[in-house]
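Support case: user asked for a sample of complex input and structure output to validate their parser. Sending the pair below.
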Amino acid sequence: MAYRVLIVDDSPAMRTFVRRVIQLSGFELSACFEASNGGEALDILRTEWVDAILTDINMPGMDGQEFLRRLSEDELLRTIPALVISTDATAHRIASMVSLGARGYITKPFLPEALRAELERTLGVPCE
Amino acid sequence: MNELVIGHALRDSVREVLEKMFFVQALEGSSAAELSASVPGAEIAVRLAFEGRPPGSLTLRVNTVAAREIAAGFLGQDEESVSDRQMADVVCELANMICGSLLSRVEGATAFQLEAPRIVPLPEDPGAGPAAISYATNLSRGALAVTVTIGMSPCPDLLPFAS
């Protein structure tokens, strides 16, 4: 199965890295959208459907927390599983993002296998 | 805050980030003081401030040859195809990850907030100042030095935090 994903991070390098890791992990992507903050991501989601969202927290403009909050307020968008990728490994932050609807959380630095495992768990399907 | 604890956390953070995300081995080499004072060749320097308990800032210096190699590996490109902008972006992300990893280790129970990392003019003496803790390491094609200043308010000329 090929997946459509949305990667939200203000670092173009990080977006490239995440996309590469997903592809190298064996996930087939039929589409990979990118946004540099939550506002841009919401614009994309107005016209494109995705199977999963991978989002940073600390971004200029709309940050990851506000982005998740907006997703949770939309009846349709809240059904898209969102996985947070962040440098913040504190219990406080993880709990905060989960309470906002994040279905997964992975902290940087991470091994590619860890991202794959978290994606599999978040999507609820094993990679072929 | 115990400087020894921070120093060890800084060392562990630099090594873990370099190896896990950038596929670069931190090599044993000269003492931290020697490396910190002299990163070979042209350099790039990044600084980011953070708010937490306590607040502070992190400065990372790396020579551009090593930075380009790191960027190429991170982006999955040949070194020749890495632009200066991409290299700067990757080094900023490297500093961001090291800082976040460090703060998660030493401020684990409290919330912290990172500013966006910025390329800055080379600091005259990155090891100077109160509560400045440094770690430096050889890389295969150069050296990298990281200095954390703890307990100082973020630099006033930096951009405000994102909302």
